[in-house]
Amino acid sequence: MTMQVHSKTRRRLALLFSVPLAFSLVFFFVNQAAEHRESRLLEIQSLSTLLTHLRAAARDAEAGERGFFLTGEDRFLAPLIQARIIFPTLERQVLANVRDRPAYQAKLHRLLELAHEKFRQAEASVQQKRAGAWSDAALLEYLDRSQDTMDEIRKLTRELLSETDREEVAILDTQRTYSRWSFIFFVTGSLLMIGVIVWLYNALLQYLAERDIANANLRTANLYLEARIDDRTRDLTNANAELQQFAYVASHDLQEPLRTITSFSQLLAMRYKGRLDQDADDFINYIVSASRRMTDLINGLLALVRLRHESHSAGPVCFEELLAQAEISLQASIRENGARIERGHLPCLVVDSVQISQVLQNLLSNAIKYRGPEPPVIRLEAIRDATNWIFSVKDNGRGFDPQFSERIFGIFQRLNNREVDGTGMGLAISRKIIERHGGRMWAHSNEGAGSTFFFSLPVTLEDPHETESAPSSAVASP
Predict the structure, then answer these.
(1) Alpha-carbon gap, residue 188 to 195, rounded angstroms
(2) Angle formed by the axes of helices 278-309 and 136-272, to 10°?
(3) 3-state SS of the chain: helix, strand, coil percent to 5?
(4) 30-44, 321-335, 425-439: segment of lowest average pLDDT
C-alpha cells in the first residue's frame, strides 16, 4: 500500500514539475529569439550609421575639393584629407557588417566603387588645379561628372537606408511580439510554480509525519540488528582466535615430522646414492625436494601469521642502509648471476627496519630469480608526491602477462610452476608489510620486457629531524 502511495506521489510530482518546466523552456527559447532579434537590430542600426558616415565622407571630399577650387588654398583640403583617412576603416566595417546579408551586398559594393571614384576624381582634379591645367570647358565637364557621381552616391545611400529602416521596423515589431509572449509565459509559469510549491508544502507535512513513524520502527530494528551484530562479532572473534591457534599448532606440530623426513631422506641420498638404480635415486631426490618445499611453505605460513599479530616496531632508518643490508643477504645470488643493482634517490623514513628490509630483499631476490637471458640489472629509486613516497624496483627480467598483476600477490600464487625455486609467499608477505605501514603495493610488466614493482609509504613517516629534498613527479597508478 505504501509503495503504491509513493508511486502515485512520484507521478504527481513529475507531472506538476513538467508543466512549469515546459513553460520555463519555452520562456527561455523565446528570450533567446528576442536576444537574437535584438542583436540583428543593433547590426542594422550600425549599418545605417556606417552608411551615413560613408555619405558624409563623400560630401567632405566634395566640399574639400570645391573649397580648394574656389580659393586655391590647401587648408580647404582638410575635409578631403580627413575623409580619405577614415574611408578605409569605414569600408572594412561596412563589408564585415553585410558579410551575411546578400540583399545589401550588390548595392553596397556599387556605393563603395562610387566613393572610390569620387576620391580619385577629387585627388586628380586637385593635382590638375595645382598644375593650372584646367580650362573652363574642361572644368565644367568635370563638375558635371563629379555631380553625377555624387547624385548616384546619394541615391544609393537613400535606397540602402530605406531598406535598413524597413528591416529595423520589422525587427521592432517582432521584438514586441516576443516581449508579449515572454510576459505571458513568465506569468503562467510563475503561477504554476506557486501551485507546485503549495502542493509540495502539504505533501512535505504528510511526509514528515510518516517519517517520524518510520524512524521509530527503524530504531527498534537497529537495536535488534546491533544485538545480532554483537553476537556475530563475538563468534567471528572466537573463530579467528581458534584459527590462529590452529595455524600455530599445526605448523609447529608439522615441523618435527618434516625435520625427521628431511633428515632421513638426506641420509638416504648420501649413503645410497649410486648403489641403487637411477629410479631409486630420483625417488629419493623427489622426497628431499618435497620435504624442503613443505618446510619452506610452513615457515612462510608462520611468517604470515606472525606478521598479523606482531607489534609494529618503527624507528628512523635510511633506505640506503636497508638496501645495503638486502644486498649483503643476497650477495651469493648477486655474484652468481652477475647482477647489477642501481639506486636513485632514497629517503629516510620511520619504519620497521626488519620488515622493510625483508620487502626489499624479496623484490631483489625475485628480480634475480626471474631473470632474462641478459645479466640482471635492477634499479631502486623513490619519488615523492603530495602524500606518498613512491618506490619502484625495476628489472630487465622475463616479466609476466599484465593480466596476472594482482594474482602474483596471492598466497602460494606462482606463474612459473616449479621452474624457479620459491614458495609463492614472498610477495604476499611484502604487500602485507607495506599495508601495515599505511601504503600499498602493485606491479607493471609485459612478457619479455622486464617488470617494475611499486610500493608507496605515506609522507607522514618522514623523520622530522631529517630534511630530504626530492623532485615531485607523478608515478603510474596501477
Answers:
(1) 11
(2) 120
(3) 75, 10, 20
(4) 30-44
Of 430, 420, 422, 455, residue with least CA distance to 303: 430
Distance of CA 454 to the CA centre of its chain: 23
CA of 367: how far to CAs of 71, 147, 188, 364, in Å? Answer: 102, 98, 75, 5
**Identity of the amino acid at 274:** G
Please give the biggest Cα pair distance in the chain: 145
Neighbours of 177 (CB within 10 A): 14
Quick one: which of 51, 106, 67, 62 has its CA closest to 84? 62
126: nearest Cα among 81, 82, 59: 81
Decide if 159 contacts 104 (C-beta within 8 A). no
Work out the pLDDT band at 380, boundaries 50, 70, 90: very high
How many Cβ atoms from other residues are within 10 Å of residue 411's Cβ? 15
Closest CA to 363 of 378, 348, 350: 378
Mean pLDDT computed over 407-436: 70
Superfamily of domain 313-461: Histidine kinase-like ATPase, C-terminal domain (3.30.565.10)
3-class secondary-structure state, position 330: coil
Taking 90 as the threshold, does the pLDDT of residue 382 lie above it?
A: yes
Residue 453 is placed in which grid cell?
614493482
- pLDDT at position 467 is 46
Task: Using the structure block, give the residue that is written with the C-alpha cell 578605409.
Answer: 88
pLDDT in tens, 136-194: 666 667 777 778 888 888 888 888 888 888 888 888 888 788 778 777 877 777 787 78
Query: Any idea of the CA torsion for 458, 461, 462, 463, to the nearest 10 degrees?
Result: 180
> One-letter amino acid identity for 298?
I
The Cα 225–Cα 204 span in angstroms is 30
pTM greater than 0.90 (yes/no) = no
Handedness of CA 364, 365, 366, 367 (dihedral sign): positive
Phi and psi of 471, rounded to 5°? Answer: -65, 140
Q: If you count them, how many residues does the chain have?
A: 478
pLDDT at 366 over 80: yes
